[in-house]
Structure formats: C-alpha cells, structure tokens
Amino acid sequence: MTSILLSFPNTLQPKFITPWAHIASQIRYYSSKKKSASSTRWLDRQKNDQYTREAKLKNFKSRAAFKLLQINTIFKLFTPDRPQNVLDLGAAPGAWNQVEVEKCHPHSKILGVDILPYDPPSGVSTMQANILSKQTHRLIRDFFRKSDQERELKAARTMEIQSSSGGTIASITNESLVASELENDLDEGYESHNSKTGKKEKTIKSVEEIEAERENERPIDVVVSDMYEPFLQVSGYHARTTNLPYFRMANMTGLALKDHLMSMDLCDAALIVCCDLLKKNGKCIMKFFTGEEDKNLEKRLSVVFRKVYRFKPKATRPESKECYFICLGKKHDIVNKMNVFRAA
C-alpha cells in the first residue's frame, strides 16, 4: 500500500477556494498496489530490531537514544554531580533530550535547536532556528547567559535567607545588595553608575572578572550534534514557517557520496558553534557519514580539542556509514577560526 499526501504551496493555491479545499489538501489516498521489496525489507528490519522494540518499552522517541547512552557510558559527557549547560543541535524529535534530562544534574540547562518544530521533554527548552545563521548563535548565547545569571541570583537569595536566620543586620544588608546587583545585571547589563554624580564609574577589572566575562561569552559545557535525519511533521504548517524543511540539505538522498558531503557541511556548522560558544575544556560529539572528507574534518577538530575519537555505538546498524566524532577538552576559550579551517 502506498500513500500520497496532498499539500499545496501558497503560490499554487487556486484563486477560488471551495469550502472543502483545506480538507482535501490533507486527505491521504491509498492504492491497492503491493509494497515494494525495499519497503518490505525496511519494515521487517524495524520489526526485528532490538533497539526499536526497547525504545518503545522505555518510551524513548526513537532508537537514537541508545546511541547517546552508549557514548555517555564510555566518554562521560554528562556530570550528574554538577549543573551543566548542554546544547543539542538537530534535536528533533527529542530522543537525545530524554537522555540528557536523565543523565544531567537536575539544575542543568538544556537547549534543543532544530529547524523543525518538536515537543521537547520536561526540563528542556527548545528553539526552532537555523544553526547556519549568526543570529541563532546570538540567541543561544543569550539564552544560556540569562540562565546562568538567574542561577547566581537564586544562590544569592538562598544565602540571604540563611544569613537572615542567624546573622547580623550588616550581613543581611550585604547579601541583599548582591542579590539586587544581580537583578540589575539581568535587566540593564554590567554598567554601574555613581548614585551621586550619575556618571559611569571607572573600575579596574580583576582577573576573576575577566574570566567571568569570557565564560559569559562562551557559556556552554557540552555540544551534541545529531543533525541529519528529519522526522514526520505532526501537522501541515500551511504558512511554511520552516522554509520547507524537508527540502533542506540535511535530508538523506540514498547516495552515499552526497550524504557524506552534506554531513560534512553540518559538522563544520557544529564546529563553528564550538569555536564561538563552547567553554574551555568543553566537550562535543557530532554525527557524520564516513567518506573521503572526514579525515580533513578530524584535522580541524584536532586544532580545537585535545582529544578526538571516532566511535560507532553498538546501536548503530553495522551496514550504516554513520559514525561519531567524540571531542574532549577544548584547548582555548578564544579560537581563531581561520587557523582551524586552514588546517584542512
């Protein structure tokens, strides 16, 4: 049985639309033809796959969750004993988000970014955006920056409550000042003004302040990139708000060379995110499809990270060309991207 989903772009809509036109565009028509041999093989493979069955039992959104679980078991990406900022690129449909929530500290900040909309699990924020846009990078930085400031504000308020229970009036006042200053940072930035003159104060920044500013520019501890496979849209999205995502470059064509080159483009996009937003000593994993260019990508990654490993989880099918680069220990806060891409 084959099915056809009718959906008309805005430019092809008829001038006069009948009352049932919007319904007709969503109707599925079924034919009486038998399934092709390739369709039958695919269905049999899914039915007999142990990870597909186990994903349903554990309520994972896809079998890809087991790949991240197996990677984390060996390379310890997530730390349950301290909060982390985690960026998940190509997060739809959210299977990796489920693993991140399970393995990270409860106060960790997790952001999923995808050009397609999806429903994230509880405890995860999501952003529908194109990672190739610099505006998306700015939005990601602002999200984690604000999250970190809110976390510091909460900690300051906790100290204030503890001081008020057994401390002096002076200690309470000082802690209140810390909390109020952090609140001002959230709303007005880091510029301080002299209350008497109204002029900006000239202050000498300490080493700690400089380090804090650097961390604020690169607030992410872990970047995971699974940018490749699309998922079925849950509704029509008549306005085409995602710019026809099913025709974006991340779709699999079935042609090994083309799929490999497209995956290299997406890996380079993830690498740029790491250069701009990942902290020193941060970690990254990215999916790629093996081919001639992956050695050059490995050289570029080696410029940014101390250790780079190739890893194929057991949950990846043996016949698949899918593989992962595991990158540990970002060498420097500030990375010259020209030097990175000159390497290969």
Automatic annotation (TrEMBL):
Coiled-coil residues: none
UniProtKB keywords: Methyltransferase, rRNA processing, S-adenosyl-L-methionine, Transferase
Gene Ontology molecular function: rRNA (uridine-2'-O-)-methyltransferase activity
Domain called Ribosomal RNA methyltransferase FtsJ: residue spans: 60-330
Keyword field contains rRNA processing: yes
GO cellular component, one term: mitochondrion
InterPro entries associated with the record: RNA_methyltr_RlmE (IPR050082), RNA_MeTrfase_FtsJ_dom (IPR002877), rRNA-MeTfrase_E (IPR015507), SAM-dependent_MTases_sf (IPR029063)
Gene3D superfamilies in UniProt: Vaccinia Virus protein VP39
SUPFAM superfamilies in the cross-refs: S-adenosyl-L-methionine-dependent methyltransferases
Pfam families the record matches: FtsJ
Family statement drawn from the similarity comment of this UniProt entry: Belongs to the class I-like SAM-binding methyltransferase superfamily. RNA methyltransferase RlmE family.
Name listed for the protein in its UniProt record: rRNA methyltransferase 2, mitochondrial
Organism whose genome encodes this protein: Ambrosiozyma monospora (Yeast)
Lineage, broadest ranks: Eukaryota, Fungi, Dikarya, Ascomycota, Saccharomycotina
